[in-house]
Amino acid sequence: MELQELTDAIVAGNLNGAVALSQQAVDAGITPQAIISDYLIKGMETIGARFGEGKAFVPNLLMSARAMKGCLDLLKPMMKGDTSISYGRIVIGTVKGDLHDIGKNLVASMFEGSGFEVVNLGINVEAGKFVQAVVDNKADILCLSALLTTTMGYMKDVVEAVNAAGIRGSVKIMVGGAPVNAAFAQEIGADAYTDDANEAVIEAKRLLGKAS
Length: 212
Description:
This protein has helices at about 5-10, 15-25, 30-50, 60-75, 100-115, 125-135, 150, 155-165, 180-190, 195-205, and strands at about 90-95, 115-120, 140-145, 170-175, 190-195.
């Protein structure tokens, strides 16, 4: 089989095709690790780059992330606890008072599709729940989302709660959402701000020293 077809299927967002090709690759004796790192992640990087250049759009990202997740669902049970394919573990959620989740879910999907483990806490998440999730999951990165100017201020409460819990040195904090910007991120003590899902993946890899 021609494995480039698998990368192409991810780029095209072809869920059924990508899963079928992944199974063919396994049947041909290729390790799940190699399939993920050499073909699937390359597909996500390609669609991410196209998005960054304005040659692909949010629906394309979502379809590619869905295809990638389908392949990961097939391959991960075969890996017998091998977590080496993971770039890191991310806890993500929309802060207290904010019920928006489309952008946050897109970012979560991109993270999953790019090789991160993701714990998605949903919407209207209180600071204590973020802190507990970071501790329970030994998260490398905490991602906070807000779509309203009235709720973005709560991100500062979350950062302060992380500091108070004594775990700030072990977790990076990223923030995003329509009203948020880099100056605000710096002001509240976050490590990074990104304005789209693809940029979030690039920044997360950079923060963890795993930039490709």
